[in-house]
């Protein structure tokens, strides 16, 4: 998981006229921190309403969701909403792009259909567009460690995203710095330490065991989320695969607690521990 340092803390400490929200939905806690004072509170209400609605329609843990009904063959794709059809189409394109390493119908998935590896990032990205339509130009949304950022928290200071230690949850192993000049940026992490063995390597039919976590940064949270799942499933080959995806970079931690990253991440690294052994 990625922990966005400062955004949620700042949201709590910020002046009352600075829009902010924290809500539990989509199986996680989502924090919205808008630093533009003239953005109406109603925009944050709309963004949260959107996220709650996505959870109701896409959650494989809700028996009445469209995804659950589709998995049980009670309905077919043509009966689903335009959003569900769009997500299914994008997930199929990602399956082909990744040669099957990203597969929402993989073995062992709940009900045989789980698009969560794309849906959360996509939903949060759409929530960001709602904020931007209302005038937000400086904000952070943290969805259980998957983060989308734009602008800066204050003039002259970048957003800082911390990558947590996969074993010691209170430790940060690297920090990524995002200044206002980079535009909208996103960071997502995949691993097995939060949700258990929910990712499957299609070549072996088993959960991957070469990595403990894979963090991906890029312009789109929907894509970064899916790429993080893909690269994690690929194991040690994941970083090389990411290097072929324009605009996206990765930071991996293997099972021996050795970190590695590719060139696309290098300019963003504000600090990184060279070894990730037990904290002193």
Description:
The protein is α+β, with helices and mostly antiparallel strands and 280 residues long. The protein is 30% helix and 24% strand. The chain has seven helices and twelve strands. An eight-stranded antiparallel sheet has the order 2-3-4-5-8-9-10-11, sandwiched between helices. A four-stranded antiparallel sheet has the order 1-6-7-12, with no helix packed on it. A hairpin with a 2-residue loop joins strand 4 (139-143) and strand 5.
Write the layout of secondary structure elements.
Blueprint: E1 2-3, H1 7-13, E2 20-25, E3 28-34, H2 41-58, H3 66-71, H4 82-97, H5 116-133, E4 139-143, E5 146-150, E6 159-164, E7 172-178, E8 185-191, E9 211-218, H6 221-234, H7 238-242, E10 249-254, E11 259-261, E12 269-272
Antiparallel strand pairs: 1-6, 2-3, 3-4, 4-5, 5-8, 6-7, 7-12, 8-9, 9-10, 10-11
Helix pairs in contact: 2-5, 5-6
**Can you list the strand order of the major beta sheet?**
2-3-4-5-8-9-10-11
Rg from Cα: 18 Å
Mean pLDDT: 86
Strand proportion: 15-25%
Helix proportion range: 25-40%
Major sheet, described briefly?
8 strands, antiparallel
What is the end-to-end distance? 22 Å
The count of DSSP E runs of length 2 or more, i.e. the number of strands, is 12
Overall SS class:
alpha+beta
Overall 3D shape:
globular
- The SSE string, one letter per element, is EHEEHHHHEEEEEEHHEEE
Query: Can you count the helices?
Result: 7
Low-pLDDT runs of 5+ residues are: 1-15
